[in-house]
Specification:
The chain is α+β, with helices and mostly antiparallel strands and 187 residues long. The chain is 18% helix and 40% strand. Strands 3, 4, 5, 6, 7, 8, 9, 10, 11 and 12 form a ten-stranded mixed β-sheet that branches. Strands 1-2 form a two-stranded antiparallel sheet. A hairpin with a 2-residue loop joins β6 and β7. The longest helix has 21 residues. The radius of gyration is 27 Å and the shape is globular.
Amino acid sequence: MPENSPFRILLAATALSATALLTACSGGSADTAGAADDAQVVGGEVGSTAADSLTIEDPWVKTADTEAGMTAVFGTLSNTGTADVVVESAKTSASDTTQLHEMAMVDGEMVMQEKKGGFTVAAGGTHELAPGGDHLMVMNLEKPIEAGDEVTVRLTLEDGSTEEFTALAKKTTAGEEKYDDDMEGME
């Protein structure tokens, strides 16, 4: 068979195509080495989510004795990952309205207000939710929350993942915050 026969050219082209296909599928070429870079990397691991790095320690909710009232959820958010985690929103089983709140100085007065941009939990760090500080404000309570009740909380994180936990209701005057109808306009 002559060296330049159509059959040999077809055979060589087929062999080159098969080699290129196998190299591309093996993940060993320079073209595919960066494929992991396209995958979601959170907390230092490919394929992980922000929720994989986030936990809450000692979660609790303040009791509330009025049906139209408000309360707050507290605890310590911990990030075991190598990237910051941002909590963007929250929902609870106690109400259809839950907001991320902070205490801030406005016109020389400390006021409670919705936290714009969410809560950032630094890589390897913690973020405290406490009376008189950042907290999850539960508004428009559907029923009173009594000591010993449990409230389910779902946090939605910046990457769209969620972290769910249960907060135990405790009666306390910590922070001496008053959650009353004056907060209704904050929705």
